[in-house]
Design goal:
Radius of gyration: 20 Å
Shape: globular
Number of helices: 14
Largest sheet: 9 strands, mixed
Helix content: 25-40%
Structural class: alpha/beta
Number of strands: 15
Number of domains: 2
Distance between the termini: 56 Å
CATH superfamily of the largest domain: LarA, N-terminal domain
CATH topology of the largest domain: Rossmann fold
Strand content: 15-25%
CATH architecture of the largest domain: 3-Layer(aba) Sandwich
């Protein structure tokens, strides 16, 4: 169905989200599709809808990037569904509200598809680090799965793209549990890879037109990159996107682990279909306060220190004065280390430094490693 080899990645320039420009970019990607083989298939598009953010904030996949993929498969005679599992939410009303803010439902409707707000999960066998887990049933039962991620730096894993986006196939409440049981970046990234290997995804697309820089995946700043990247191997796709972003690969645990598990090759062995990477390459600054801000430093610590001391060395999340006491962080916290008083209060004796609170805070009132004069519990 897709004439793209595992060591091939399509890179197409796309400078804006104007419909004609995105359509032109997709036309280059569609050259590698066999449209005649799609008729009658059920297609599930998995975007990045982290939380209820407008597309201009660059934390969600832009609806225009979703629209053209959905329209292609709808026009090919497919039953197209689109959905995600936003953070820890399972209530359909809340999921619909998050979807609406992203702008994606309107794009899917225009393209002839439907949004899926089901949070029902089915148990599946995983891999070495995650032997069994639940994934969204409608994704499991689809003939074709299209993963459309957003290029962003990440406070915990350093980068989020094709591989990390598939963490969203896990129904809401189960995601915090995995942070609790896999609190360090290496262990958690191995879990992400197990999930990625289990989900039978046919195509991976990364919206790198405008990415996010800084304390991603939700509190960073939009930054233009100018490309749409696609391929059948998510690790190769991410390798290329990371190169375009100008992030040193030694800072990204995913690259090292995927290579060690034989799932991808070095960049020089990946065949680029489309434009030369030098025509697009940018310079994104990883989040300096994140756990992976100095990979060699943290690897040495992880090797030398017992796990409890290593976890103490990681920087803490701090609540800022602009906290609105909405309670989202408390609901999302895997070890239940947050309570709501006049503002959120973190009990650091329970905190595992997974940074879910910072990731999901709608007010951007939680930062990492920057203490303010705010009342809170301490060790």
């Amino acid at each position: 169905m897709f004439s793209i080899k595992s060591n091939e990645v399509i890179v197409v320039p796309c400078k804006s989200y104007e419909r004609e420009e995105v359509a032109a970019a997709y036309a280059e990607i569609f050259k590698y599709f066999n449209k005649d083989k799609f008729d009658g298939k059920s297609v599930y598009i998995k975007p990045n809808i982290l939380k209820g953010d407008a597309p201009e904030k660059a934390s969600v996949t832009h609806p225009e990037v979703i629209y053209h993929a959905a329209k292609y498969f709808s026009d090919a005679g497919c039953d197209v569904k689109c959905g995600d599992s936003p953070n820890f939410i399972t209530a359909k009303k809340m999921i619909n509200s998050i979807y609406k803010t992203s702008g994606i439902p309107k794009a899917i409707e225009e393209a002839g598809g439907t949004m899926d707000n089901s949070a029902q999960g089915t148990s599946v066998k995983g891999g070495v680090y995650l032997p069994e887990f639940k994934m969204l049933t409608n994704i499991l039962e689809s003939d074709i799965v299209i993963n459309i991620a957003k290029a962003k730096t990440h406070s915990f894993t350093g980068y989020t793209g094709a591989v990390k986006n598939l963490f969203g196939v896990i129904p809401g409440p189960a995601k915090p549990e995995l942070h609790l049981t896999h609190p360090n970046a290496k262990s958690f990234t191995n879990v992400l890879i197990d999930i990625c290997e289990t989900v039978k995804t046919d195509l991976h697309i990364v919206d790198a037109v405008i990415g996010m820089e800084g304390p991603g995946p939700s509190s960073g700043m939009p930054k233009k990159l100018g490309a749409i990247v696609a391929g059948t191997n998510p690790y190769a796709v991410d390798e290329v996107v990371i190169e375009l972003m100008g992030i040193k690969k030694g800072k990204i645990e995913q690259i090292n682990l995927a290579r060690s598990r034989g799932l991808t090759e070095k960049l020089e062995n990946i065949k680029i279909l489309g434009t030369n990477l030098k025509n697009i390459k940018s310079s994104y600054t990883p989040f300096k306060d994140a756990v992976l801000s100095s990979a060699s430093y943290w690897k040495v610590l992880a090797f030398l220190l017992p796990m409890d001391l290593f976890m103490k060395a990681k920087k803490k999340p701090y609540v800022q004065p602009n906290c609105v006491s909405c309670g989202v962080c408390a609901e999302a916290c895997p070890p239940n280390a947050i309570t709501i008083e006049d503002r959120a209060v973190i009990d650091y004796s329970k905190c595992i430094k997974c940074y879910c609170c910072q990731e999901l805070c709608p007010a951007k009132a939680i930062v990492i490693g920057k203490k303010q004069n705010v009342s809170r519990k301490t060790n």
